[in-house]
Amino acid sequence: MATTRTLSDPTLDLQSNSKLNQHQSASLDYETSGSDRSRSSSFHARPNSPATPTRSRHAAAEASFWDLKVMKMKKRRAAKAWYGRKRVKGAVALIGLVALFFFVNWIMILRLQDQRPDPDSKTRVSENSVLVQENLRKYAKGKRPQKGIYGRLLALAAHALAEGANKREPKDLWQEPFVPASAWRPCADQRNWERSEGNNGYILVTANGGINQQRVAVCNAVMVARLLNSTLVIPRFLYSSVWRDASQFSDIYQEEHFINYLTPDIRIVKELPKDLRSLDLEAIGSVVTDEDIMKEAKPRFYLKMILPILFKNRVVHFLGFGNRLAFDPIPFQLQRLRCRCNFHALQFVPKIQETGALLLQRLRQRAGDTGPLDHYLIGPSAVSNKKESSSRAKKPSRYLAVHLRFEIDMVAHSLCEFGGGEEERQELEAYREIHFPALTQIKKTTKLPSPAELRSEGLCPLTPEEAILLLAALGFKRKTHIFVAGSQIYGGQSRLAALTSLYPKLVTKEKLLSSTELEPFMNFSSQLAALDFIGSTAADAFAMTDSGSQFSSLVSGFRIYYGGGKMPTIRPNKRRLASIFLKNNTIEWRVFEQRVRKAIRQTKHVQTRPKARSIYRYPRCKECMCRTD
């Protein structure tokens, strides 16, 4: 126990040093300004030296001359300032008149455009537009006022989608624009070292969070086990009050495949030896929590602070282990081991693979062609899928997957407002008090940024309405097949009404799979999330709404690793989009389209992994992938 007490918090040290430096700096500033004042006082208080009357007269004349000079300069400056202010006022008035003229002109043109009939539009298109807008009006009459925030833009989107029914989609909509991406191929399965015997003790990990956080924790634990030459016990998963899922490792991933695939790298066992199972790990100081480890700790921390505990007690239990291992600097082979774990060693159990195969089959409308990632996601089920559908093969149906990260935990934790007024504020505050008590306490004692400031900085999750407007602006047609992952949306199914009004072929796994097919997964949110992972990763295009989401990071990383440069991912820049959505009451649809497409085009390119960024999200690097050119 004494050893764990030595785990220091460098943040506190930095704060202390910062305060000391500030105090010293303030003292120095005070002393300097004080000495300057004393020098100034002594200079002005110095008595005049004896002088002749002539010198006195000359001094008086010179003084009056400079006094006059200074007075003239002051008058000249005042005159210039007055003239400058006059010119500025005149210019502002002129600009205001011109702006007013153009604004009135613009309003008149808009009204004319809205009222004039379109003789070239087909009756069918017109009826579609009217029908969609009628649905939107019904939708706007719901209980929650936030549903009507984007009523105008949603109506414009409906009209644009109806008019564009027979137009071609933008050519790069279903493509990854980074051409050299195809020059990279997966190679994390290649090894260049001897197996670690795991002689230094045992590593236990009980990972917190949802399935995606747990997946990252597992692969980080694999790397730490190799780093410390220790034996890894099959990880366990903490029960979360948010996710409410008691699933363990073997309920989600193939345990035997995990052990066998990583056998050339580390030693893995299913449980501790009997003599260690009876120990009170907390009493002997072998329990290490997230409070004991800084975020993104470097390998030297584990060698210096954890290895001695391992030597002493033969076992260390990491409790939580969320985001507790850095991405740089990491030795080449250890970094590759993390990739090997994520992209090769973790495979879903047959129950999830079979249902995932059924989901993909229905998403593609029983097309005879399997996707490029199917084999890695659903294993042998991909082959049976192909055999079953080969007799009735037809043109493959492309589909877009969208991850709507708008669950209540995300909404509440963001501290943003979404137009629901006092009812929404009370509901989210009550949720925070139960699930995020620390955040509630911070909110009471610390001045935090306002919801408006958070939104302008791009720190608020995109609402479902904003996400669907984004897709319409990018050019996805009304008939596009859209799979929505993360269907437990804050606001319930009624919130999806506006989305299905614009895109009637929008579906969730709950719509595609029967209650009987979903029954084995009910009350297991992590296993349901695994189905969402399969449906999103295999999609022809994937759109995330929150770039910080672990789910979106893992999906996009998987698509990069196995996609061969042909699996595009849409990554929104929420800060840029926030400035666009702020003008939702005045912006023209054509301008909205242009600005959204420009913002997305700049984030759609996928380059090599930036330094210190996630290896799971950006696997296009020499540790995980190899160049073929």
TrEMBL record:
Keywords: Carbohydrate metabolism, Fucose metabolism, Glycoprotein, Glycosyltransferase, Membrane, Transferase, Transmembrane, Transmembrane helix. The chain crosses the membrane at residues 90-109. GO terms for biological process: fucose metabolic process. Residues 1-32 have a biased composition (Polar residues). It is a single-pass membrane protein. Coiled coil: none annotated. Pathway: Glycan metabolism. This is O-fucosyltransferase family protein. Pfam families: O-FucT. Its main location: membrane. Belongs to the glycosyltransferase GT106 family. PANTHER family: O-FUCOSYLTRANSFERASE 2 (PTHR31933:SF9), O-FUCOSYLTRANSFERASE 2-RELATED (PTHR31933). GO terms for cellular component: membrane. It comes from the Eukaryota. One of its GO terms (molecular function) is glycosyltransferase activity. Residues 1-58 are annotated as: Disordered. It is found in: Membrane.
